[in-house]
User: Fold this.
Amino acid sequence: MGIHTYFRSLNELERIIRCPGKFKFEEHSVSAHSWKVVQYAKTLADIEEMHGVPVNWKKLYEITSSHDYGEIFIGDIKTPVKHSSPELRLLIQQVEEGMVDHFINEHIPEEFKSIFRRQLREGKDNSVEGLILEVADKMDQVYEAFAELQRGNTEKEFVVMYRNALIKIKQIRLHCVDYFLTHILPDMVNEESMSPINIKQITEEALSQ
Assistant:
């Protein structure tokens, strides 16, 4: 019982593999994904601050580091499935939030419950920090899918993941998105590739949406 139970539960995130059921050259756990999202978000937030945008760093670290904790209870549901309809996405979110809340009620000491509810909540919203989380989360999808495509993985799901993540990033109005699209993405696309898939063409089509 207590916070020890929460700390022990973090090990489970290392055993949940992203994009299950598809051939991958490299497996990625939810735990590794969360760590990378924090790293992306730090740099994205720095770019925002360079443009005079105030950032609540405490909130940013809380929501980026814990944004997928609920997957301990429901696993990694593939993005195309999760977003196949707004109704399904809402139901999945409600189930995840309900199970997180039940865990907090059952295991977290009373004096920490409000803290854990704040930290483990759904962090994606219209605040600067919530939008940075959205961009960072989608950036990791871009990088994971790109790495598979670059090495010649022809699984269609990675093309869809790469394309949809880029479209979503492009729709978010932040200075860091402009920087990613102008300076970072071109460096990625211009790397050598063994893929029979034309990654550059897919990128251009996604950005034209």
Notes: The chain is about 70% helix and 0% strand. The chain has a mean pLDDT of 89.
